[in-house]
Design a protein that fits this description.
Helix content: 40-55%
Strand content: 15-25%
Distance between the termini: 47 Å
Radius of gyration: 20 Å
CATH topology of the largest domain: Dehydroquinate synthase-like, alpha domain
Number of helices: 13
CATH architecture of the largest domain: Up-down Bundle
Strand order of the largest sheet: 1-2-9-6-5-3-4
Shape: globular
Order of helices and strands: EEHEHEHEHEHEEEHHHHHHHEEH
Bound molecules: glycine
Length: 359
């Protein structure tokens, strides 16, 4: 078991990472409040892991709610199901919510915890690679809105994150690849060695080799913890974690939430951001090709869906949370292991990328 710290003063917390973590009561008990415990999960993950977690939390007699699985349910209606359950069953301000599932469940539970009775405690128990390396850490919580992805939300840090890489054995192959998009992102923005390691080990990750998964998860969590500690509310460096997301969120919104998985949209978005960079000579063509190749080897798209028009991209990208005074800001790679957030990019480079002009 490895334990990392997210140092945020009074909101500091630990990330416990290890196979079998899900069944270790002591990893949870110290982080729970005095009141009742409610596990929030979905109808795919619940049948696989809810009984195990209930057993680990047995001393606290947890209740549980299972909501429908999938990004298209990350909305007000599903959140209201959770609020109704909590209110009907008398959960008070001393309650703790436990998010058991992927990024949708973590984001929804975290936002629910941020709002319920003006804020209660919650723990993250992520069961997808994407949530284990990214979504469960850092306190960004949200639901989607018809006008845009993650548009209604709050910063609300969990009391702890318990990562059991053993849960990845049951993850659908598409979901596993989706998580790899975020792993590739970390290499690109912050760690050339991780990117190089991925080029050599991506097949092991796809084959669910546990030591390889452990390595990737630990490194990504280290990077994320450091970035969040430096910039909890995304006033600066944290925005780098959005590499590929401005394009990706536009894809998710345009196709309909859940049509492409979040990581698939982010992967295409990473390739598009890299294309903008290469058009401005911020990235070498050979580096661009390495990025596209790694994305492809991870089982992910490195082109946007043909159905999304340049006009849709521009409309949805303009609603991005990084827009300031109406100016689009993009996260763009500057080599491998380095990226910038910039509003000073060449508009033609973006337009040529959106219209698929040959490089
Ligand atoms: N997923 C990006 C962030 O947490 O900032």
């Amino acid at each position: 078991m490895n334990t990392l710290n997210v140092p945020l003063g009074t909101r500091s917390y630990q990330i416990h990472i290890g196979s079998g973590a899900l069944t270790q009561p002591e990893l949870f008990s110290v982080h729970l409040q005095k009141g009742a415990v409610c596990i929030i999960t979905d109808d795919r993950v619940g049948p696989l892991y809810l009984a195990k977690l209930e057993q680990a939390l047995a001393a606290f007699e947890p209740r549980s709610v299972a909501v429908p699985n999938g990004e298209r349910h990350k909305n007000w209606r599903t959140l209201d199901m959770v609020f109704r359950f909590l209110l009907k069953n008398g959960f008070g301000r001393d309650a703790t919510l436990v998010a058991l599932g992927g990024g949708v469940i973590g984001d929804l539970t975290g936002f629910g915890a941020a709002c319920y009775q003006r804020g209660i405690a919650y723990l993250q128990v992520p069961t997808t690679l994407l949530a284990q390396v990214d979504a469960a850490i850092g306190g960004k919580t949200a639901i989607n809105h018809v006008y845009g992805k993650n548009m209604i939300g709050a910063f609300h840090q969990p009391r702890a994150v318990v990562v059991d890489p053993g849960t990845l054995v049951t993850l659908e192959p598409r979901e596993l690849s989706s998580g790899l998009a975020e792993v590739i992102k970390y290499g690109l923005i912050a760690d050339e060695d991780l990117f190089l390691w991925l080029e050599g080990h991506v097949q092991e990750l796809l084959d669910r080799d546990l030591p390889a998964l452990n390595h990737a998860i630990n490194r990504c969590c280290e990077i994320k913890a450091a970035v969040v500690a430096e910039d909890e509310q995304e006033q600066g460096r944290r925005a780098l974690l959005n590499l590929g997301h401005t394009f990706g969120h536009a894809i998710e919104r345009a196709l309909g939430y859940g049509e492409w998985l979040h990581g698939e949209a982010v992967a295409a978005g990473i390739a598009m951001a890299a294309e903008v960079s290469v058009r401005m000579d911020w990235l070498k063509p050979a580096e661009y090709r390495r990025i596209c190749r790694l994305v492809e080897r991870a089982g992910l798209p490195n082109r946007p869906p043909a159905a999304v028009t340049p006009g849709q991209f521009l409309e949805y990208m303009q609603r991005d949370k990084k827009v300031r005074q109406g100016r689009q800001r993009l996260v763009l790679p500057k080599g491998i292991g380095q990226a910038v957030v910039s509003d000073d990019f060449d508009a033609d480079a973006l337009a040529d990328t959106l219209t698929h002009k040959p490089l």
